[in-house]
Amino acid sequence: MAKKEENKDLLENPEVLQEKLVDVESWFERNPKIVIGVVAGLMLVVGGFFGYRYYLTNQDAQAQTEMFQAVRYFEADSLNLALNGDGNNLGFLQIIEDYSQTDAANLANFYAGAIYLKQGKYPLAIFHLEDFNANDMLVQARAYSLMGDAYMEQKDYENAARYYDKAAGHKPNKEFTPIYLMKAALAYEKLNQNQKAISAYQTIIEKYWESSELQNARKFKAKLEGNS
Fold this sequence. Notes:
This protein is mainly α. It has two domains: 60-133, no CATH class; 136-228, Serine Threonine Protein Phosphatase 5, Tetratricopeptide repeat, CATH 1.25.40.10. The chain is 79% helix and 0% strand. It has helices at residues 2-12, 14-30, 32-75, 79-84, 92-98, 103-118, 122-130, 139-153, 157-169, 177-190, 194-207, 214-227. It is extended and about 85 Å long. It starts with a helix and ends with a helix.
């Protein structure tokens, strides 16, 4: 109750408010080192934050430039050069190591994972694809699908199905989602989980009837239902 009365006085009585302000001002005058320290600390935190952001921006721009040739090697299917560099230009692995906090390094993980998958080095493919993260509609789903492929090649059908489902569920679209659903269905068939496979096929039939996967989805669904 006393606290409420004090607050009321502060709001309604200018003299009381002035007294409080004088007390605060007096405290500042008596403790200048504390005030200066607090202000300096805040300036360091704010300055450090913006300085780090500026540093990362510059690092990312440099990394993107360095990665240009590696991407060209990847597109030309020169996978070892893309991965390890050519002596003059960095490969994806060096980009990841030298510019680890940048968007370029994040994307380099995707490329490295795709390369290792093509080379049959499935654990390494999974390792790099797990380190990749994006919010876009296509590439993140593609990364999940590639991880599913790597698990599928290792006959780990449970994890394959899990990542194909993640690919299909990531911002669904008519171009690629049916493909991921077909892969998920195949993994479920390998697991003898036919109802889940049928469900994946049915999703294609109902939602993606314009897809080129439609006919196969109908055929494989009918085959499973005939066997059940």
